Amino acid sequence: MDYRVGLLGRIALVAASLFLLAYAIMGSWGVFMISLFLILVVFQIIFLVRYSESSFKKVRLFLDNIKQDKYSQLYPVKFDGTETDDLHIEFNAILAKLKEDQAEKEANYQYFRSVFKHLSIGLITFGEDGEIQILNVAAKRILNIEELKNIAEIESINKELHLAVQNLRTGGSELIKIAHPDGIMQLSVYVIELLMRGERFKLVSLQNIQSELEEKEMEAWQNLVKILTHEIMNSIAPISSLAGTLKGEIEQRIESNERASDEELEDFLMGMSTIEKRSEGLINFVSEFRSLAHIPTPKFGIIGISKLFDQLEILLQNQLESQGISLEKDLNPKELILFGDQTQIEQVMINLLQNAIQALEEAEVKRITLKAFIDEAGKIILEVCDTGKGIEEEALGKIFIPFFTTKKKGSGIGLSLSKQIMRRHKGNIQVRSKLGEGTTFKLIFNG
Q1: pTM over 0.70
Q2: Closest C-alpha among 447, 411, 176 to residue 337
Q3: Rg of the chain over all Cα atoms, to the nearest angstrom
Q4: What are phi and psi of 338, to 5 degrees?
Q5: How confident is the model at residue 355 (pLDDT cuts 50, 70, 90)?
């Protein structure tokens, strides 16, 4: 029976009972009849209230079950066409849907948790109180531990790693060496800060890049050996050949007891002079190579970028004016400062500016732009942009290799030195270039 019909029927009965009660009082039917009708009215009102509240109680109970995640309860259905049956059918349908959604969420959670735990990269999540939420298998293996309850416990494993995890902010990364039973590990530590349901927590990734570094190191050594071998052989081969020729000529004069003519003596002198020059060139080459391995430790201090740009402009003013090059400066903010070694950063900027000046020799538009700004990740960026001929794509991947150069004159160590200096400042140097449009060198300081 429909709820409204039942409710209206009960209201009608209460009204009829009230009418009869009033009629009994007015007609003097006696105390017994009046009392009987009065009790009847009271009971009908009680039943009416209970009937009207019955559905609300069921709804309240249903909502309490949802609140407590009790989706397994089933409401009985008698299929008698009553409003209770209809209500129970709807309740059961809703609970079945919620139960299905809960199962799907649980399956997704278990799936992602399983993926998280079995990734080859170590992953750790922890809240503001330092309590570990998730610690995957790779992280346990890297840290050589069975369990980790609080992030502060990492300090006993490696203090540098603990400081990095605590101090790094979103997007921050650091390379840290840690001792491990399998040998020294070079870890790349990366941190992301997240906010979920008003609670802040950190996601830390730990990746052992020792093998990749060793592979790159070996590749770098092989390239370096090739370059060194090529350069040294280019110098030694003519020296050896010329020395052998001079030796043969002198031995022949000694054996035949002949005196060398003035012309022959001049040839001998010229040959020895050539050997001397090539030997000096080889010594200079080795000296330049040694400079790559003996970069002094940076003496950090505050560097005003605006003042640095002004000093560079004054230093290179004659070169710029003689070649008709315009220099533009773009700082945002104007009072931007940098923490680094003033002398070394100046050297890097001078190297880049000299490269830019040389790149503009045959350019139609001769312009160099110095830029300084803070990017969206909070890193300080210095850029040297030119409108020169650009660098070929094949050469872009090699320009930071020691002694590699695309210029007719040049040792090929300027950019290598710059790269090492930026590494000492825990920064990086990048380049982008397009033929016919120009080149931009980007110095990235992590702050």
Answers
A1: no
A2: 447
A3: 43
A4: -135, 145
A5: confident
